[in-house]
Specification:
The protein is α/β, with parallel strands linked by helices and 236 residues long. The protein contains 8 helices and 11 strands. The chain has 2 domains: 54 residues, no CATH class; 170 residues, 2-enoyl-CoA Hydratase, Chain A, domain 1 (Alpha-Beta Complex), CATH 3.90.226.
């Protein structure tokens, strides 16, 4: 089912003298213009629209045609594969025009997020990233992963970074040490990417990620996660 803005045509009865009491009688008893259950025939309606149908504006497809993508829910394999496919197709279609990725997400799966991040670095077009609402966890790395000088935050956005989490309580004893090693390596990988994209020293990012580190748009800009804030663009 398409998500968008419906264009609903006007319609009117063929017979302007049709009375409400007659309609109630027809419904209860049926008549020659209806079926045996008293239902009115579709022919009794005349649509003003020439095509006699409802037209929908398929909003996502229109935005995709403008090379605008969205990350607005939990990051998982499904949303990652969707974005990877869109970035691949749009890059094949035109490898010189920028893509724009709008982000308002609480984050999600680390490996799915890294798949999106890696694809952003791999495709030929520059990726403009825009952060609005809450951009947390892996979503903040994807925000920072946009092309340098083309990463934007809305004035009241909140950006959060933290270390990757693991459900140690659900593990068997023998798997615990392996999971700890895997999470430690993953944290170092993510910290390295943050440091590369922000220009901050590895040790600073590593320390910031010890706890949930929430930042305003201005703080995120000072930290190097974004390059500019939306209200600043009004000056140009």
């Amino acid at each position: 089912m398409p998500v968008g803005v419906p264009k609903i045509p006007e319609y009117e009865f063929e017979d302007p003298e049709y009375d409400v009491e007659d309609a109630e009688y027809d419904y209860e008893n049926g008549d020659e213009n209806g079926d045996e259950n008293g239902d009115q025939s579709e022919d009794e309606y005349e649509y003003a629209d020439a095509d006699e149908k409802l037209d929908w504006i398929d909003l996502p497809n229109l935005l995709y045609e403008e090379r605008i993508l969205f990350l607005t829910r939990k990051i998982n394999n499904e949303i990652a594969n969707q974005l990877l496919g869109l970035m691949t197709y749009l890059s094949i279609e035109d490898e010189t025009t920028d893509l724009t990725l709008f982000i308002n997400s609480l984050g999600g799966w680390v490996k799915s997020g890294l798949a999106i991040y890696d694809m952003m670095q791999a495709v030929p077009p520059d990726i403009n990233t825009i952060g609005g609402g809450v951009v947390a966890s892996m979503a903040s790395l994807i925000l920072a992963g946009g092309e340098n000088s083309k990463r934007l935050a809305f004035p009241h956005a909140r950006i959060m970074i933290h270390q990757p989490a693991a459900m140690f309580s659900e593990l068997e004893t023998g798997d615990l040490s392996r999971e700890i090693n895997a999470v430690t390596k993953m944290r170092k990988t993510i910290t390295k990417e943050y440091a590369k994209k922000t220009g901050q020293p590895f040790a600073i990012i590593y320390a910031d990620m010890d706890r949930d580190c929430f930042m305003s748009a201005q703080e995120a800009q000072a930290h190097g996660l974004v390059d500019s804030i939306a209200d600043e663009l009004k000056r140009y």
